[in-house]
## 1
Amino acid sequence: TYIVTDNCIKCKYMDCVEVCPVDCFYEGENMLVIHPDECIDCGVCEPECPAEAIVPDTEPGLESWLEINTKFAEVWPNITEKRDPPADAEKHDGEKGKFEKYFS
Ligand code: SF4
Ligand code: F3S
């Protein structure tokens, strides 16, 4: 499966939702997650994310992000259409420690 990681937080560009063939993105206040059981591993979303926040879960050290995607995809609403990203998205692109500061 692919998962959404830290740099999505507060950037939330939403280009990813438009290309997913199975509509498996879910929306929280500050970021999106992928439902790992619904993702068909097509990889189409990965290059679409301007924040490079989408990665395959086979990369090392991503256990906690897989847990977060799994947990919140069950709670947050499905999102299938892109809206305008936050006005200050670029300011937060690449910022360190976003999870601790802003995750909700
Ligand atoms: Fe959707 Fe494919 Fe990305 Fe999985 S890898 S979230 S199926 S676009
Ligand atoms: Fe987040 Fe990238 Fe999608 S910033 S909302 S994963 S396009």
## 2
Amino acid sequence: NKIVLTGIKPTGRPHLGNYIGAIKPALNLAKELESLSIFFIADYHALTSIKNPELFKEYTYDVAATWLAMGLDPNKVIFYKQSDIPQIFELSWILSCFTPKGLMNRAHAYKAKVDENKAKNIDIDMGVNMGLFTYPILMAADILLFNSNIVPVGKDQVQHVEIARDIANAFNNCYGEIFTEPSYLIRQETAVIPGLDGRKMSKSYNNTIPLFCEPKELKNLINKIKTDSSLPNEPKNIDSPLFLLYKEFATDEQIEEMKEKFINGIPWGEVKKELFEVINSFLETPRKKYNYLMNNRHLIDEILEEGAKKAQEICIPNLNKIKEKIGCQ
Ligand code: TYM
């Protein structure tokens, strides 16, 4: 049985990029595959940037409610909060002893910060905490502790999964085949969902469309998506982010019709209106569930507690095996 694992960090409201890039493919896999699915909230990863306890809590519930509202069935999927599983952090230390520092120097998030500092002519490590620097090791622990085979992610997480493989290899070379080497799973068409300004949709770029914003805000945000300057009745380019988003929420028939309209020419304003309609109607039922859960947070607490117990049934024996190999048990 294959193990599918993925996580989302609560650093902001979950957005269309998170849904299309990770949640949707993960939930589809959970339905299709003869596999065990493990989905979690990477709250300690969020601590590298969110230092406000109210916000931290709010975003954590938000990510949990989002997964559940979009169809995660806690009876079929193991669903927990990372900070409830201390074994992950114990493994993280062990793995850090098998991680060359140079590998962390090359990790994207750290490198981006260093480049930004260089451009500003300030100390290269300004604003870098060790949590940010060793972030990929904790992520490797998330993945390797459960012997995950498949990690569905967007493009920005591919390097992290590759680092997890490298670390697994370093450990296995020393002690034998203990860890399973994970593979990332990516859908080429949706590996990078663009945000309002055309760059990758990202909480840190402030260009997101939150999945569960109210209809009015959703409409406003969709209207802000950047388009090219073609004239209203000129043919439109189907590589447009608007068409990409439309395809994710519309039926096959609607997609065909929209394609025709793109070829024959349709004003962008009209496309945006129709995009709003399909997303909004798709989200109508999930939004009710989301709001209900956000107003009844004890239900989320119960689900996550139960999930942590199930996760530990798997990961405690796994960690014990690892400790035995090292010689500390
Ligand atoms: P995070 O919280 O930034 O994003 C969660 C998932 O959403 C994907 N994603 C996107 N996909 C397509 N287009 C976009 N614009 C877009 N923005 C985000 C991400 O690629 C990701 O799959 N480090 C991870 C969380 C994590 C994790 C793990 C993931 C911690 N441990 C173990 C997998 C396995 C992160 O920050 O994702």
## 3
Amino acid sequence: MLMRMSSLFVRTLREDPAEAEVPSHKLLVRAGYVRRFAPGGYAWLPLGQRVLDRVAAVVREEMAAIGAQEVSFPSLLPQENYETSGRLSAFGDDVFRLRDRRGAGYVLGPTHEELFTLLVRDLYGSYRDYPVTLYQIGTKFRDEARPRGGLLRGREFLMKDAYSFDLDDEGLRRSYQAQRDAYIRIFNRLGLDYTIVAAMSGSMGGSVSEEFLAPAPVGEDTFVGCTACDYAANTEAVTTPAPAVNGELTHPAAEVIDTPGTPTIASLVEYANSVGAGGRTDWTAADTLKNVVLRVGDSILVVGVPGDREVDLKRVSAALHPATVEMFDDFAAQPDLVRGYIGPQVLAKLGIRYLVDPRVVPGTAWLTGANEADRHAVNVVCGRDFVPDGTIEAADVREGDACPACGDGSLTLRRGIEIGHIFQLGRRFADAFGLDALGPDGQPVRITMGSYGVGVSRVVAAIAEQHHDERGLAWPESVAPAFAHVVATGKGEQGETAERLASELTARGIDVLLDDRPGLSAGVRFADAELLGMPVVVVVGRRLADGYVEVRSRIDGSRTDVPVDDVVELID
Ligand code: ATP
Ligand code: MG
Ligand code: MG
Ligand code: MG
């Protein structure tokens, strides 16, 4: 492929765009890769489109390699599916909603778990059909509170979203692992530096969740890494060592109230507001209830043990206070897991003594009304002190803190860009939509799911964040719009040689950008080559008289004089 700058739809800018704050945004606009048309809405120009397409192509290849099949869904979707899953309220103001001419409610899809669940339910019936993994690369819409950083946080952005469907937990683990391995290959191929961190699963729900974070000063996520082992976690999800539970309890006052089964907690936000106790909406009950509940004295302790147990909060609360049963039933209209917050005031009003370990709900730990003896027992069980009626900020990790995984190393803090996020969703969506397979014994088997996202458009910006200098972009070979940028500094023989080299390189399958624009100084051409960021720049200049051209590496800055007859061979 040969792109001629004389006709390519690109204009480079000398000035940074006024609204741009981060390097990738400034450079992608200045280099003519993208243009802003709305808050968080960007047009892709030919060079940008090529980078985007190349990123998507890598994603497609690695999805195909693990047997994931590509489909494509609409973005304009009936609102009711997101009501059924409970996520309309979970997403809150992040969802763009609209009505059609008949008044029916629609959303612009923020993510597609609901639709993929419905699709598989419609077409698959037998256990023999499973497992299956489907994906799409499509536009997502989120009414982000603060669209920023150009492509980093759009309100309209390109995502690869994959969904796995399995018959059992072991199958889900395998599907998750396959996606995780594919992500490692994808991000390696894209030339990204990244860390895989333990994550909170957000509005998705589910138990196991990891993020791929690309370290960059402009990243909006903060994560910790250990100096001694490979522990890494988003500060939202930092865990302290699990206490001795699951049968290893030694304290006589502690008794495990084990409540396996499907959690049915409804939103307590409304409840909190209705009793005038206030409430928060910044965590998801679904995330936090995969734990073991202990009764210690007459207090209840929810301990954040990583694992597959789920707490039926209704049963737990009912064991303490019958009034809570009504409270849960009031919200039966919202049957699934919804964002909520069990305010200490609510529990106090109901006379419930309730302890929440900060490992369960970061930022919240409280001890409502428990007496000294209980508190002591709790501390024994947890192996640490609670701050009575206080708040422990789990996100408030300092450098230097001891590593919760190995205990030997200390934690270091870094900022990163979330480029991918993978979840073991479990049966949450299958429960909401009744997705079963008919098992070999004729009994229905509830399907278990995973979901796996890559921010394809964000990745373009993340690559730019990690591969640039003050003069411009410096694309890794795998995503560059062209491999070689051929620049002639003069007309005549230099121009003709540049043409010839460009066509010889192209004939060998190398993508070339040829600066054949008339009437520009060498300085302008060099500055543009550095701004545009092709990995190799071939300068056909004065030294051509001696039979040489100069080959510049945009990656390491090296400059080498090469005999003109050798240059094609050298680059190929
Ligand atoms: P963030 O924490 O940055 O808001 P998220 O956790 O809400 O992201 P997910 O729901 O996990 O995002 O979506 C999967 C992937 O989609 C993310 O890992 C990210 O790469 C990408 N993504 C999410 N929101 C945006 C956005 N507003 N603009 C561009 N890419 C996004
Ligand atoms: Mg988000
Ligand atoms: Mg996130
Ligand atoms: Mg995420």
## 4
Amino acid sequence: MALPKTELHLHIEGSLEPEMMFALAQKNGVALPYADVDAVRAAYQFDSLQSFLDLYYAGASVLITEQDFYDLTWAYVLRAHADNIVHTEIFYDPQTHTARGIAFAVPLAGIRRALADAFTQFGMTSKLILCFLRHLSEADGFATLEQAMPYLAQIDGVGLDSSELGHPPSKFAALFARCAELGLPAVAHAGEEGPAAYIWEALDLLKSTRIDHGVRCTEDAALVARLAADRVPLTVCPLSNLKLCVVDDLAAHNLRTLLNAGLCAMVNSDDPAYFGGYLNTNLLACRAALDLNKAEIVQLILNSFEASWLSAEQKAAWQ
Ligand code: ES4
Ligand code: ZN
């Protein structure tokens, strides 16, 4: 897994390792409902997306200062560099922080400073995607966009994450239309726990340029044909799917089916601190469970570059 690669589906708050969670809790005087790091790891047993999100939002409460967000992001950069990720497009959830009284500018500045250092030290390029929380209202999303307005030069696109079922993309059609007017490209989580219909909505109503997860697309042949025809990328997260019981067994994952259907699918780590591994661990687990051959691994990595927001020149430089 030494090949240069990109990562396109990574929630920076989901890279918060228990050790850092504890250290920041202590420094910031935030109470955690766990005795120690081992107790946190032992709690990472999920039966659904929601059971994970409850812990993920609780964990994020230890992040207070700009330096905390820097340290979080820098720790991810080091792990990404170790996996030979040369370009990463990361999500962050500003509403998780502004809802706790953290100023909008604080997470953005810390994350951006670490990404700038990643470029200086390793030549690692990056994009930053502001994700709206779909369990909150569209009005809350519009208020967040308003807060983002002075900083749009630092935001490369918008996404949609959090609790999927009951919160279809259509709920955010007006918000994403406004983002498009502002020149912000969109992505959206769809077809993780939600049905194929949510993927259609993400494409047609949100103008999503990629689908995050999207694994339930195989329930709708017409949708697979659309995704293949338009080369709409699917940012698949296999260990996430396993941990959140989207699949019972990695050997039953439809990753190869997606590739064989001609889809631009690739592997990502999603929330690596919670799901048992960073990008190379995901690729190795898939190779073992699905018996992927070298050509299939290379295809996944080529797809990660194709699906990225790197310029044509940057992509060509990595071929
Ligand atoms: C997430 Cl795995 C997943 N799905 C939806 N929203 C998320 N936020 C962080 N991880
Ligand atoms: Zn995700």
